Amino acid sequence: MDVPPALLAALPDARSITVLTGAGISTDSGIPDFRGPQGVWTRDPAAARLSTIGAYLADPQVRADAWRSRRDHPAWHAEPNAAHAALAGLERAGRLRALITQNIDGLHQRAGSAAVLEIHGTMREAECLACGLRTPMPEVLARVDAGEQDPPCPECGGIQKSATISFGQPLRQDVLDASITAARECDLFLAVGTSLTVEPAASLCLEAVERGAPLMILNAEPTPYDAVAAAVVRGPIGETLPRLADLVLGAAR
Ligand code: NAD
C-alpha cells in the first residue's frame, strides 16, 4: 500500500475515523457505479434524467421509468462485500467517528454497520413529495408489479418517489449537519469508492483537511481532491480497504 511512512505509522493510533463511501464500494457486490468505466451514466448518459427532480415531477413517463428501474435494481439481490465488512469491523472496534455514505443500497447496514449517515437517502423506502409519508419500497413496487405505472401516495394522492436525493433536491439538513460535524471532529478521513464530484458530499474532505485530519482516498480513478490527500490508494477497494482496516486494528494480513 503506497502510504507515506509517517501516516502508516499513525494508523494504529487513529481513534476517531470518519469515512465517506460512494458507489465504488458496492461494485464488487454487483451494483454498477455511475461514473466508473462500467458506470450506468458512462454507458447511458440519458439515464441521469431519472435522477433529476424537475424531470421527475414534470413527466409521468420519467416516473414510470424510475419505478421500473427501482424494481429491477441489483441492490435487491446484492450481498455486502469484504469492504463493507471491514467498515463494520472498525465500528465494532470503536474506531469510527462516523460512516457517511452517498450510497442508497443499504449494504453497509446489511454488513452490520449500525450508525450510517445516508447523505443521499435510501432506495429501501418511498416518500410522498406532498405529505412526506414514508412507505417501505417493496409495498410500492408490489403496486407497480400489479400494473400501476406511477403509484400515488396512499394517504394524500401525491406524487411518490424513492426516498433518495435527486439532483435539484435539498439534502436533509440534520444528516448534512451531522456529516459536517463528523468530518470536522475526526482524526482520519477516508474517502472510499467515490469520484468526489457530487457536492456537498465531496467537500466534506475539505472540512477534515482544514482542521488538520489527514485525508486518505481509496479509489481506482483520480478525483478532484487527490491533490490535498495525504495518501491516494488506487487498488481494488475489496482488497485495499480490508488491508487498511487491519493496519488500523494492528492485525497482520
Ligand atoms: P461515482 O460513480 O461517481 O464514482 C465511483 C468511483 O468508484 C469511480 O471513480 C470508480 O473508478 C471507483 N470504483 C468503482 N469500483 C471500484 C473498485 N472496486 N475499486 C476501486 N475504485 C472503484 O460514484 P459516487 O461518487 O458515489 O457518486 C455517485 C452518486 O450516485 C452518489 O450520489 C450515489 O448516491 C449514487 N449511486 C449509488 C449507488 C449505490 O447505492 N450502490 C450506485 C450508483 C450510484
Automatic annotation (TrEMBL):
Pfam families: SIR2
Catalytic machinery residues: 120 (proton acceptor)
Amino acids binding Zn(2+): 128, 131, 153, 156
This enzyme's EC code(s): 2.3.1.286
Family annotation (InterPro entries): DHS-like_NAD/FAD-binding_dom, NAD-dep_sirtuin_deacylases, Sirtuin, Sirtuin_cat_small_dom_sf, Ssirtuin_cat_dom
GO terms assigned for molecular function: histone deacetylase activity, NAD-dependent; hydrolase activity; metal ion binding; NAD+ binding
Keywords per UniProt: Hydrolase, Metal-binding, NAD, Transferase, Zinc
Domain spans labelled Deacetylase sirtuin-type: 1-253
Protein name: protein acetyllysine N-acetyltransferase
